[in-house]
C-alpha cells in the first residue's frame, strides 16, 4: 500500500516529472533499479525512476546490457565466500517464480534456460583444479555431478575432442539479460512507474538533486523514499556515506555476442565454462541462437573493447568448441561490474531515514535482481529483508 502522506514535490519552478503521486524515487535504471521500481509499483506505490538513458537502456552506461545472464550460484562459488553463496542460492531459488510473474506482467519472454551448466577441463591440471572445487562444493551440499569425457561430449557433441572431463551443475541456469531488462521495463511501466531521463547529482534524506535532459542542473525532487541503484557509479554520487562510496569499485568485463549463420544448428545447449591456459571462459547459448562468450575481468574503468581481449576470447572459445569458428561475430562490448572491496553487494538503509542503497552486485546482479527487489520491498514496508542479506548492509563499511 502507498505510504501515508507520501509525495514528490520540487522546489524548482521548472517542469519536473514528479507531481503528486510518487512516494519512491529510484535512481538508476539497470536491472537492480528497474526490478525494485516494478515491485514497489506493483505493491501500490507511486514510483519515479531516473536514469540518464530514460526509456532507452542502450543510451545508458549499464552493466546490465553487457552481462551474460548466467544464474549460476554453484559455478560462481569459490573458497571463502560462504555468505555470498548463501545469498546467491537464495536468489536462484527465488528467480524462477519472480521470472514467471514478470513474463505474465510484461507479456514477454525473458529467454530463461534451465538446461544447466557444464564445466569442462582440457588438461590434467585443469581437471585436478575442477575436482578440488567440486569436492569443496559437494562438501557444502551443492549439486555437482562429475562426468567423464564421453559423457561430456554426449551432452555437448561440439565440444573439442581433447575434453578431459567435466562437472554438470543442473541448477545453474541462464536468462537473456537484455530481454529480461525489457520485460522489467514493460512490467514497470504497466504498474505505473514513470521513467525520466536525468542524472542525479546529489542524494540526501528523501531528496535528490537531478540534472534533467534539456533543463538546467539542480532541480530538486523529494520523495518519502530514495533508492540508490546506480551500479559502479555509486562511488561518485554526492551525499552518500563516504565509506560506502569508497567500497564500490568498477571491474571491467569484455564480452562477445555470436550468431549462428542460417543452416548451422546450435553449437551448445548448456552453458559451458572452462579454464583455458589459466583464463576463465564461459559460453552461454540463447534460445534465439545467440551465443555469448565472456568475459575478461580487469581492474579498470574504461569501456574500450581491445583487440587483445577479442582475440583471446575467440581463441579460447574455439579451443573449447571448435565449431565456434563458423559463427558470426555480431558484437563485442565492455561494461563495468559494480564490484566492492569485499565482493559482496550492499543493501540497506544508508544511515538516514528514507535513503536505501542497493548496489555492488558485482558478477551476480542479474541473478540477485529478484531477491534485491524483494529485500527493498520489505525495507519500504518497515520490515527486515531475508536473513541472507544480513552480512551485506552498508553499515559493514563504516
Ligand atoms: C561482462 C559482464 C558479464 C556479466 N555476467 C553476469 C552474469 O552472467 N550473471 C549475473 O548475474 N551478472 C553478470 N554481470 C554483472 C551484472 O551485469 C551486474 O551485477 C548488474 O547488471 C548490476 O546491475 P545494476 O542495475 O546494479 O547496475 P547497472 O546495470 O550498471 O545500472 C546502473 C544504472 O544507473 C545509472 N546511473 C549511474 N549513475 C547515475 C546517476 N547519477 N543518476 C541516475 N542514474 C545513474 C546508469 O546509467 C545505469 O543505467 C556481468 C557484468 C559484466 C560487465
Can you walk through the features of this model?
The chain is α+β, with helices and mostly antiparallel strands. It is globular. The two termini are 33 Å apart. It is built from eight helices and 19 strands. The N terminus is likely disordered. The chain has a nine-stranded mixed sheet, with helices on one face. An eight-stranded mixed sheet has the order 6-7-5-14-15-16-13-17, sandwiched between helices. A two-stranded antiparallel ribbon has the order 4-8. Strand 10 and strand 11 form a beta hairpin. Flavin-adenine dinucleotide (FAD) binds next to helix 1, strand 3, strand 9, strand 13 and strand 17.
How many strands appear in the DSSP assignment?
19
Biggest β-sheet: strands ordered side by side in the sheet: 1-11-10-9-3-2-12-19-18
> Major β-sheet, in short?
9 strands, mixed
Strand content: 25-35%
| Helix proportion range | 25-40%
Q: Which hetero compounds are present in the coordinates?
A: flavin-adenine dinucleotide
Structural class, from helix and strand content? alpha+beta
Number of separate helices? 8
Tell me the overall shape: globular
Task: Note the main attributes of this structure.
single chain; 398 residues; alpha+beta; nine-stranded mixed beta sheet; eight-stranded mixed beta sheet; globular; disordered N terminus; binds flavin-adenine dinucleotide
Amino acid at each position: 500500500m502507498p505510504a501515508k502522506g507520501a509525495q514528490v514535490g520540487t522546489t524548482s519552478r521548472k517542469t519536473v516529472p514528479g507531481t503528486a503521486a510518487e512516494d519512491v524515487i529510484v535512481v538508476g535504471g539497470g536491472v537492480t533499479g528497474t526490478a525494485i521500481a516494478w515491485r514497489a509499483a506493483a505493491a501500490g506505490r507511486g514510483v519515479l525512476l531516473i536514469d540518464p538513458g530514460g526509456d532507452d537502456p542502450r543510451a545508458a552506461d549499464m552493466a546490465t546490457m553487457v552481462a551474460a545472464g548466467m544464474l549460476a550460484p554453484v559455478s560462481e562459488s569459490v573458497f571463502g565466500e560462504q555468505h555470498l553463496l548463501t545469498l546467491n542460492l537464495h536468489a536462484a531459488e527465488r528467480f524462477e517464480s519472480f521470472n514467471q510473474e514478470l513474463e505474465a506482467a510484461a507479456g514477454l519472454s525473458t529467454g530463461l534456460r534451465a538446461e544447466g551448466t557444464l564445466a569442462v577441463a582440457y588438461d590434467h591440471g585443469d581437471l585436478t583444479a575442477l575436482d578440488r572445487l567440486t569436492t569443496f562444493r559437494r562438501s557444502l551440499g551443492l549439486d555437482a555431478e562429475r562426468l567423464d569425457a564421453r559423457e561430456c561430449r554426449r551432452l555437448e557433441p561440439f565440444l573439442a575432442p581433447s575434453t578431459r572431463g567435466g562437472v554438470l551443475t543442473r541448477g545453474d541456469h541462464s536468462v537473456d539479460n537484455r530481454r529480461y531488462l525489457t520485460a522489467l521495463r514493460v512490467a514497470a511501466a504497466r504498474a505505473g512507474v514513470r521513467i525520466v531521463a536525468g542524472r542525479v547529482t546529489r542524494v540526501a534524506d528523501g531528496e535528490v538533486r537531478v540534472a534533467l535532459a534539456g533543463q538546467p542542473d539542480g532541480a530538486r525532487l523529494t520523495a518519502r523514499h530514495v533508492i540508490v541503484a546506480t551500479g559502479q557509479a555509486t562511488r561518485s554520487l554526492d551525499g552518500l556515506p563516504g565509506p560506502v562510496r569508497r567500497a564500490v569499485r568498477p571491474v571491467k568485463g569484455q564480452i562477445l555476442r555470436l550468431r549462428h549463420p542460417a543452416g548451422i544448428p546450435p553449437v551448445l545447449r548448456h552453458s559451458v565454462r572452462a579454464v583455458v591456459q589459466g583464463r576463465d571462459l564461459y559460453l552461454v547459448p540463447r534460445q534465439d541462437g545467440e551465443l555469448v562468450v565472456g568475459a575478461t575481468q580487469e581492474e579498470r574503468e574504461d569501456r574500450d573493447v581491445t583487440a587483445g581481449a577479442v582475440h583471446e576470447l575467440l581463441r579460447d572459445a574455439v579451443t573449447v568448441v571448435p565449431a565456434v569458428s563458423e559463427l558470426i561475430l555480431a558484437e563485442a562490448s565492455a561494461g563495468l561490474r559494480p564490484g566492492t572491496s569485499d565482493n559482496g553487494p550492499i543493501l540497506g538503509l544508508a544511515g538516514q531515514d528514507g535513503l536505501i542503497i542497493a548496489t555492488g552486485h558485482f558478477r551476480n546482479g542479474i541473478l540477485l535482481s529478484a531477491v534485491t527487489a524483494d529485500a527493498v520491498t520489505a525495507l519500504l514496508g518497515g520490515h527486515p529483508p531475508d536473513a541472507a542479506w544480513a552480512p551485506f548492509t552498508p553499515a559493514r563499511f563504516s
